[in-house]
Every structure is written in C-alpha cells, then in structure tokens.
C-alpha cells in the first residue's frame, strides 16, 4: 500500500463513521505504527473533527501502543526469536539504522523527540530499549515526545487548513 492509498483509506474510514466512533478510530489509527499521529491528525482535522478532541484521542492511542510495546518488548522479542530460531542479540532490523545514528548523537531524549517524524515512535522506542535504556525512561521520553508532536500537528493542521481556506 502506498502512502497516498494509506491516507485515502484512513480518510475513508473516518468519513464513513460518525460521533464518538470517529474519535475511537483516531485513537486506533494513531496506535498503528505506520499511521501514527502525523497521518491521522491532519486527516481528522481536515474532515472537520474537533481539533482538541482529535489531539487527545490521537495522543491517547499513540501513547498507549508505545507504552504497551515498551512493557512487553522483552516478551515479544523472546517469542519472535524462538519462532524464528535466531539469537535475541543485536539490533539487526534494517529500519533501525537511522534511529541508531540519532541515538548515538543525541541519546534517548533526542531519539524520542525525533522519533515520530524520523523513524516512527515505535522504532525509536525499540532502539532506545535495545541501546540499554530503562523501560521507564523510554516510556517517559516517548510520552513527552508524543505530547509535543501532537500539539505541533494539531496547531499546524488547524493553521494550515485555515490558510488554505478549508476550515
């Protein structure tokens, strides 16, 4: 699925629902690693959903998925390596290279703050854990990052749509 198709599908699903279910879908879409907050917030606000409620729902969905990932990362890694019959050492996932470079230069705070727009917050959290950060610190910094980026995306979406005369 291309990025354009992904945007269209998210928008279609949001348009086909109404009321609180729309905000439930915003939270659900924000929890999905490929979609996250940077896709769902502009689409939801562009469709006329309340920016404040959209931001809260997106923040809650994205944060919940990352906190669950951090909490269960070790169990998931053990299960995955048993299933594949590989050792659980190293961070050999190709998508982690960019996140690892950010980690080496800026540490956990930099990785978490850059994560939503550079690698996706889920990969950033996994790299932070693989680099030896404590789960509580990863959860804290990713939550702060999601909060900051949620505000940025909501404000940018509202302002951008008003500049275009859409909202």
TrEMBL record:
Pfam families per record: Sm_multidrug_ex
Transmembrane segments: 20-45, 51-72, 106-132, 138-166
Keyword presence, Transmembrane: yes
Keywords per UniProt: Membrane, Transmembrane, Transmembrane helix
Domain of life: Archaea
Protein name in UniProt: Small multi-drug export protein
Organism annotation: Natrarchaeobaculum sulfurireducens
